[in-house]
Each structure stands twice: as C-alpha cells, then as structure tokens.
C-alpha cells in the first residue's frame, strides 16, 4: 500500500469504526423492528420469505403502536427530563470541583483527580446497591435522622424519582468533572486577575470570562452525561419506584420480559433517532460557532 | 509635581518560610516613569502584584494619591496592571478586549468613542475586528496597553512590558512607550530584569535584590555613581579593583599599580569601580607611561562592535575591560590582539564603592 492510499484509509478509520459498531448494529435493529413477531427463537419472522417466489414480509405496526400509546412517549419524555435534571446537577456540582482541582497545586491536584476516578475501580452495581442500603427505611440515613430527632418515623427516601436523580448524579459526576477539568486546566488564570483589574468583581468575572471560556468543557461533559442517562436502566430499576417510568426500563421489559423483539427494536430505533439527530445538528452548529469564536 | 503620589510604606511579604519582601519604602512622584530592576527572585514582581492588589502585604501600607489602598480589591483600585503575557481575552475580538473594562458603566456611544480614541492613540484602528490569535506580539502588546489606558488609570503597573517582544521591536516599542507616557502624564511603574530596558525607560529606578531595595535613583546616577558592588556589577560592564592606602596614594595588588583619588577614603581597604569607557587606550610607542592612574597591558581579546571596540586587557593576573570609541574610520586605529598598550584614566572616573 503506498503512502497516499494509507493516509486516505487512516483518515477514514473513524468512519470504519462508526460503520462497524454503529450503523451495522443500527441496521440490524431496524431490520428486527420491521419484522413480524412470532413465538419462537428468534421471536420474529424473516423479512424475506421464499414462498412461490420472493415475498417481502415487513410491517410498520410496531412504530404505529409506539406512537399511538402514550405510555411509551411519556416514558421517553420522563427519561429526557431525568437526563436534563441530572446533567444540570452534575454541572452545578462538577464545575466548582473541576475549577478547584485545576487551580490547586500539582500534588493536591493529583490526589483529587484520583479521588474523582476511584469509584470507577469498584463495581457499578455495588455502588448503586450501597445507596439502596443507605436510603432504605431502616438504613443509615434514616437511623441518623431518627436519632437526631429530626424525624419521628423513617422517611421514604428510596424508590422515588429523587433517589434516581441522586443515584445518577453520583454515578455520572466523574464524567462531568474530567472533561471540564481538561478544559479548565488550560485556562490562563491571569485572565481572572485581568478581569478583576479592569473593574469586574468575582461574580461578573465568572460570567464574563470563566464561563464563556469553559463552554467547550461544559458541552463535552454535558453530552457525556446526558446521552447515557437517557437510556439508563439499572439506576431507575434499583433506586426508582413505580411513580415514574423510564425509557431504559421499558426497553428492557419489552425485550426480556415480553420477549417482543420487534417492538423493543422499534422503540430503541426511535429513541436513537430522536436523540442522535438533534445532537448531530447541535454538534455541527457548535463546531461552526466555536471555530468562529476560536475557543 | 506631587512627590508623594504613590507611597509604599514598610511593605513586607513572606511566602511560607521565604521572605520575599523586607521593609520596602518608596516614594514615587506623579507622572513619573519608575522602574523596578532586579534578577528573578528579587521580589520585584511580588511588589508590583501588591500594588495591583493581587497579593496582600504582611505589613505596611500602599497610599495612592492620598488614599490608603492596601486593603482594596483589585477591582476597587484606580490603577491598572499590564501582564507580562498580555493575557488578552481569547474569546473576544480587539474591540471587545479594549472595551472590557468600560462596558459596565458607559453607554454604547461612549464605548465606541473611547475605543476609537484609544485605538487612534496606539495606531491599532485597523485591528478592531481582529481576533486575538490573528495579532502579532507587538499588536498584542498595544491592545493590552490600550485595554488598561482606556480606564484612564491614575497609575499603570507593567510587568516586563517588553519581554515578550523580539529584540528589534523592543527598542522601537521602548521609545513609543516613553513618548506615550510623557504625553499622557500617567504614572508608570514597571518591572524588568533587563538593565538596558530599565535604563532607557525609567526616570528613576530601584535596584532590588533578595527582597530589599539596594539603591533608588536616576539611571545616570546609578550607572555613574553606584553605591554597592552588586549594583556596579548589575548595571553595565564594571571593572572592580580592590585598593588600599599606601603612602600618599592607593595601591592595587592585583594590578601592581598606584591610584590617585580625589578624596580621602574612610576605610583602609576598599573596592573601586572603573567603567570601561572611562579608560583611554594608547599605543605604547607614542606615549610616556605614568606611574599613577595608568598601566601597561597586553590585549587578550577584542571584539569590534561598530561604534565601539571592546578590549580585554591583561595586566598581571587581572583582566580589565575597555571600551574604545571608534573615532577614526582608519582601521589602523584598532589595536590587534597581543599588542602591548597603555591604559590611563582620570582621577574623577574612579568611583569608590561603599560596600
């Protein structure tokens, strides 16, 4: 292979990756979503039948069903709201932490970064389960509240949407902190002094200098939290109650409980399109904006 | 002229175990261009940062135009600070960088007029829509300067204002900076490690070392009559010779010659300074050798510098630097390496160093 050809292939290698691990699986899911379901293994019929010649055996019933049943739409909207709130909390908690880490001296910085990453070293399931133990009716938190006399009977802390939000913020916080830290680390701290010197107090300096220059980090961290949280299944399953349905949980049930593969695939495919399209458009607009502003 | 426009009183600062500033006292006049000169670690930048409000002194006060500003925040002080790296806002264009400090309290019309005025003053009108990354080093320096001056500060602090520029641009900018300062009549205090920069910019300058001020005077005074050995060596080229009283005159063991001084010395032994351009160099053939304020040496090294030739002349075990002005275009005027020459000087040129 000559050099030019190699360069060409090298440049396109991310696209090969994308085709192999995104578009092909997506195509398979789409194929299943338009198949007719039946009892068996796999639980759907082939889309091409050879019965007195070629016969195409597809249906869009599953899509019609998803959009006609308010249950699915509501669960998806619930998931979007959950992701939005969780991302916002991660940002509010993560930004000051990332800023503090990036401005502290090298020794403290390394210790703090390790502390941020340490939770990843233990099992995700165990960590969420630990929260279950902390929040349950005879759990540590209720015990403390009872002994301090703040409450007379145990509070229902578990199995509601607040427990879900807390669990998600706890789990996804490092994914917000790390990209933010990456950008804030490059931040010229003199700019803060300049802003103060030119007459802006701390509050105005934050909004006029620090925040605009952290936009790339905020965008990167927020996408990293938002996208997986929309499909998050385990945390709502373990900490959530029956008060709210979430997209990930319904998807799971459709696949593994109802064994309705075509229905579940239709749901998954719709979710991906609804989620990915705006993000792709946003990324295109954003990259054009950041190029213009040279951030 | 207000002699006590900026008063620095007993300022001390310690970082951990490290004493960075010790009892600094300075009075700076209105409209003065004042230089703080010192090598790295001398505490000069810390002093400037204290004036800017970015560090708080452990003891002492800073009084600007009669107001004690020691405990004011940077954004409350009627002064501005220009950073060494210029620290322009990368997310804003030149116009918005210039307007940054006046946006709060001015109307759109005022902002536009002020930015235009300052851009005219600094000849950067054509750059207003540029992004910071599209600017050269010299242009960035102007924008950083303009961003401060637009606030009409009582005092402008400059941290190594020319260090980020290349050599040719630096001398041009030096001249512009002094002209601008004289025109605007704003008090400038700047920090530098470059003695040439300090000499050419300052009306007065302070030499700092290990957190104290060794000397504070005009560049001429500091060059011609330095008080300390450190200053003599730090500014310009210095021949330092140790002498002691011997009979009517003074004698140097290193050179093996007699010195005649205009004044009596308090100490028996002392260091004297002889600047290289004060030494006259002559061919050994056409002059008599005197026994006082003169010696006979051999040219060890020579470097032709255009307007001057610098010679390193060996006498006994000591090497003396001499700068000889090239009056003649005749190349014979230059002495070749290895030539024996006579060096002599006037008694007034000998400067006694106090410590």
Topology:
The complex is a heterodimer of chains A (295) and B (355).
Chain A: H1 3-33, E1 48-50, E2 54-56, H2 61-68, H3 70-103, H4 106-117, H5 124-135, H6 140-147, H7 161-184, H8 190-197, H9 202-213, H10 215-230, H11 234-239, H12 247-257, H13 261-293
Antiparallel strand pairs in A: 1-2
Helix pairs in contact in A: 1-13, 2-13, 3-7, 3-10, 7-10, 8-9, 12-13
Chain B: E1 6-15, E2 18-28, E3 33-37, H1 44-52, E4 59-64, E5 67-68, E6 79-82, H2 94-99, H3 108-121, H4 137-149, E7 155-159, H5 167-184, E8 187-192, H6 195-201, E9 204-209, E10 212-217, H7 219-224, H8 229-234, E11 239-246, E12 249-252, E13 257-259, E14 269-274, E15 280-283, E16 294-304, E17 308-315, E18 318-325, E19 340-344, E20 351-353
Parallel strand pairs in B: 3-8, 3-9, 6-7, 7-8
Antiparallel strand pairs in B: 1-2, 1-4, 4-5, 9-10, 11-12, 11-14, 12-13, 14-20, 15-19, 16-17, 16-19, 17-18
Give a quick summary of the entry:
The complex is a heterodimer of chains A (295) and B (355). Chain A is mostly helical and 295 residues long. Helix content of chain A is 73%, strand content 2%.
Give me the strand/helix succession of chain B: EEEHEEEHHHEHEHEEHHEEEEEEEEEE
What profile does the largest beta sheet of chain A have? 2 strands, antiparallel
CATH architecture classification of the domain at 69-259 in chain A? Orthogonal Bundle
Determine the mean pLDDT of chain B.
89
Question: What is the CATH superfamily classification of the domain at 69-259 in chain A?
Answer: MetI-like
Instruction: Pick out the low-confidence regions of chain A.
Output: none
CATH class of the domain at 69-259 in chain A: Mainly Alpha
Approximately how much helix is present in the residues of chain B?
10-25%
DSSP helical segment count of chain B: 8
């Amino acid at each position: 292979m000559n050099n030019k050809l190699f360069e060409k292939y090298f440049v396109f290698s991310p696209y090969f990756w994308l085709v192999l691990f995104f578009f092909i699986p997506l195509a398979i899911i789409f194929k299943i979503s338009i198949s007719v379901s039946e009892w068996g293994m796999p639980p759907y019929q082939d889309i091409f039948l050879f019965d007195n010649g070629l016969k195409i055996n597809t249906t869009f019933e599953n899509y019609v069903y998803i959009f006609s049943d308010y249950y699915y739409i509501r669960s998806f909207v619930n998931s979007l709201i959950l992701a939005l709130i969780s991302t916002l909390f991660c940002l509010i908690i993560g930004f000051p932490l990332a800023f503090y880490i990036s401005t502290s001296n090298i020794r403290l910085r390394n210790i703090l970064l390790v502390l941020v990453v340490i939770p990843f070293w233990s099992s995700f399931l165990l960590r969420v389960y630990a929260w279950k133990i902390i929040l349950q009716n005879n759990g540590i938190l209720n015990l403390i509240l009872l002994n301090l006399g703040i409450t007379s009977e145990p509070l229902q802390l578990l199995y509601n949407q607040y427990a879900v939000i807390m669990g998600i913020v706890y789990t996804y916080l490092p994914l917000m902190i790390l990209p933010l830290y990456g950008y804030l680390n490059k931040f010229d701290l003199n700019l803060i002094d300049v802003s103060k010197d030119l007459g802006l107090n701390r509050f105005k300096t934050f909004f006029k200098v620090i925040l605009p220059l952290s936009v790339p980090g905020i965008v990167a961290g927020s996408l990293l939290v938002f996208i997986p949280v929309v499909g998050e299944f385990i945390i709502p399953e373990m900490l959530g109650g029956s008060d709210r349905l979430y997209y990930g949980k319904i998807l799971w049930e459709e696949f593994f409980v109802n064994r309705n593969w075509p229905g579940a695939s239709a749901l998954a495919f719709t979710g991906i399109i609804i989620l990915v399209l705006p993000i792709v458009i946003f990324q295109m607009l954003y990259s054009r904006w950041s190029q213009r502003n040279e951030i | 002229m207000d002699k006590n426009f900026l008063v620095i009183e007993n300022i001390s600062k310690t970082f951990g175990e490290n004493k960075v500033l010790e009892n600094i006292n300075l009075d700076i006049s209105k409209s003065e261009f004042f230089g703080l000169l010192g090598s790295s670690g001398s505490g000069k930048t810390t002093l400037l940062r204290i004036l800017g409000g970015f560090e708080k002194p452990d003891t002492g006060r800073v009084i600007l135009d009669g107001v004690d500003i020691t405990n004011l925040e940077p954004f409350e002080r009627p002064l501005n600070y220009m950073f060494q790296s210029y620290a322009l806002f990368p997310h804003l264009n030149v116009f918005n960088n210039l307007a940054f400090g006046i946006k709060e309290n001015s109307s759109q019309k005022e902002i536009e007029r002020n930015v235009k005025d300052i851009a005219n003053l600094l000849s950067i009108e054509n750059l207003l829509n540029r992004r910071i990354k599209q600017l050269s080093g010299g242009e960035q320096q102007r924008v950083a300067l303009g961003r401060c001056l637009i606030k009409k500060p009582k005092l402008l602090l400059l941290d190594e204002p020319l260090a980020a520029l290349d050599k040719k641009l630096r001398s041009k900018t030096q001249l512009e900076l002094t002209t601008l300062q004289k025109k605007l009549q704003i008090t400038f205090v700047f920090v530098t490690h470059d003695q040439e920069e300090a000499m050419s910019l300052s009306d007065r300058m302070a030499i700092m070392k290990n957190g104290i001020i060794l000397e504070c005077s005009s560049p001429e005074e500091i060059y011609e009559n330095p008080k300390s050995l450190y200053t003599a060596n730090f500014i310009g080229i210095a021949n330092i010779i140790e002498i002691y009283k011997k009979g009517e005159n003074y004698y140097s063991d290193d050179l093996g010659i007699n010195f005649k001084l205009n004044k009596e010395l308090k100490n028996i032994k002392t260091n004297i300074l002889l600047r290289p351009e004060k030494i006259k160099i002559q061919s050994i053939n056409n002059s008599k050798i005197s026994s006082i304020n003169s010696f006979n040496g051999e040219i060890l090294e020579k470097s032709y510098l255009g307007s001057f030739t610098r010679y390193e002349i060996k006498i006994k075990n000591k090497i003396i630097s001499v700068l000889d002005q090239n009056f003649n275009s005749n190349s014979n005027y230059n002495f070749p390496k290895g030539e024996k020459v006579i060096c002599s000087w006037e008694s007034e040129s000998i400067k006694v160093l106090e410590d």
